[in-house]
UniProtKB/TrEMBL annotation:
Protein name: Aspartate--tRNA(Asp/Asn) ligase
EC number, UniProt record: 6.1.1.23
Domain Aminoacyl-transfer RNA synthetases class-II family profile stretches: 140-435
Family from the record: Belongs to the class-II aminoacyl-tRNA synthetase family. Type 2 subfamily.
InterPro entries: Aa-tRNA-synt_II, aa-tRNA-synth_II, aa-tRNA-synth_II/BPL/LPL, Asp-tRNA_synthase_2, Asp/Asn-tRNA-synth_IIb, NA-bd_OB-fold, NA-bd_OB_tRNA
Catalytic reaction(s) noted: tRNA(Asx) + L-aspartate + ATP = L-aspartyl-tRNA(Asx) + AMP + diphosphate
Record region (Aspartate): 189-192
Major place of residence: cytoplasm
Organism, as annotated: Dictyobacter halimunensis
Keyword Manganese: no
Amino acid sequence: MERIRTVEVAGQVGKRVRVAGWLHSLRRMGGINFLVIRDGWGLLQAVAETEKEITALLPENIGVESIIAVEGLVVSEAQAPGGVELHELKIKVLNPVSELPPISLNKRKLNAQPSTLLDHAPVTNRHPLRRATLRLSAGVMAAFRDILTSRAFTEIQTPKIVAAATESGANVFELNYFGRPAYLAQSPQFYKQIMVGVFERVFEVGPVFRAEPHDTTRHINEYVSLDAEFGFIEDHFTVMAMLRDVMAHILQTLQESYRAELELLKVEMPSVPEQVPHIHFAEAQELIYRLHKVDVRSEPDLSPQDERWLGEWAKKEFNSDFLYVTGYPMHKRPFYTHPDPQRPAYSNSFDLLFRGTELVTGGQRLHRYQDYLAALEQARLPIEPFEYYLEAFKYGMPPHGGFAIGSERLLMQLLGTQNVKLTTTFPRDIHRLVP
């Protein structure tokens, strides 16, 4: 009999089916035995009413996480996972496991310490709660690709070993590249801008690397960046409008196609306003001073506390979980950032705050070759390492801009998780290089 997935069993009531997966749990209740099979998609309960049916599971070396195949009759049962269960069982053990896993994978709650979950991720990621989180991560990437492809964007893949740092001010991982220095890419920024000159609209889903020695709950040193860049924009508000639609589509996709995961994780889904509220950086600092009597008006950036205050204000004032902060100071942004023509000390850039935490950075870029030469000179950066990048602008580039979403941080804020490492499959931080 051909194997089917656990989530397909509900449509087979009255028929015999064959499923295979991990022995999630086994409860022996006198003359009746309940076992739960877990495969890559869900859980299925099976009921053995005779000892003979579970003979294959009786040897002492057959424990939870053993790989088994179960054939049985599908019966409706409202109390069972998925509303069905298997009866009249035939069980075959494909790979016995006798050692107990590092955590109880069949408990509904995850009570283990984060360090335990991360140290044993090859096994702990099997827990339904962990798996639901990681499946939502896949949904975020799929939805990102879906909406941008539908809007005539072309997906690209850019080098992760580069000759020069992408963003001034951020630390980079240096490596030996056949006797000469190279770096792990902090961002696909240069290459996605170059490819605007080819396709006009491009996006990438890929890893980026930051050597910043942060040891916080919201930083990791390798993460998945959802990048987009496109040409023929008016200014950064064009980019913000595109980003709003991307965020709305991602959340809508999760609600429509990942309902089981959202329910399992008890996610409180936000709505994205048709017009996401925005506030200029300088006005945001004045607002913080007025509301909280804390003077941050001379600071070049917003602190995590500033972001939380602004998030609370946006929720109270606009009933919005999202807030754009625009116009960050030019000296805090990379050299390729376009200045505000009306206020040159400030930039045509933005951050999107989601529930009081920076989630997305974006903005308008410079597009004229001479402006790049001037920007590099002002930043005291040599031209030579950027010559390949500058070539694109020498031969004509339209006004353009883009954004980058941190996938793991998006999930952290969406799920209300206290640590971004717990929305990462195998996190890399200043302490962790394995698993």
